[in-house]
Amino acid sequence: MNVISQNRKDSSMFIPMVKFSYAFQIPGGDLADRFGYNSNVGINFSIKTKKDLLFGASGSFIFGDQIKENGILDSLKTSSGFIINQSGNPSIVRLFERGLVVSLYIGKLFPVLSSNKNSGIIATAGPVFMIHKIKMDDIGRQSPQLVSPYPKGYDRLTAGFGANEFMGYMYIGKNRILNFFGGFEFTQAMTKSQRSFDYDLMRADTKKRLDLLSGIRVGWILPLYKKTPDEFYYH
Known about the structure:
Blueprint: E1 4-7, E2 15-29, H1 31-34, E3 38-48, E4 53-64, E5 93-110, E6 120-138, E7 158-172, E8 179-193, E9 209-223, E10 231-234
Antiparallel strand pairs: 1-10, 2-3, 2-9, 3-4, 4-5, 5-6, 6-7, 7-8, 8-9
């Protein structure tokens, strides 16, 4: 009888996993005319098969404060450049970028650069839905001009479908702690305004847009396989 020892890292496994990540992103296309760089935090559920195929779904939240369309509230300002609140004092209004990206993807793991066959270079791609807007934060909430539903006439809510690609490296260790990934991410979406009328433009925005995001994403992985001994034996 021959007894053969096999270590988990030496065999390709079926691994469901949850990924938590952060990305620093730079806009391109029409998105670069509206926003500067942004941050992005995401959660992702994926499956790696024994044949090293990857299937997954992800959702991520976009946030930032680099707003280039600063003139959207100019029609509400006095000649001195202020929005006057209900107390007759200048309001402090801050503008922020907010958005959401939801995607499905398929991909492939290439087990190189490591003796661990569940780690290596990964490449994924799939369809994506992107939505973003300009959030107006009225400090003290005393400006009647910005009480709901009026912000909808200024927030530039925009949405559409496109594609997402990722290429990087994934490492699955012997335990649930040392598991991570990182790489380059690209998103392209054909979007358009979701508002029927923009108050500052005095018309509907009917422009078709190409919104691009590119950046570096890094994250931690929680494998969902059952805990088993590092080694098992068969004959």
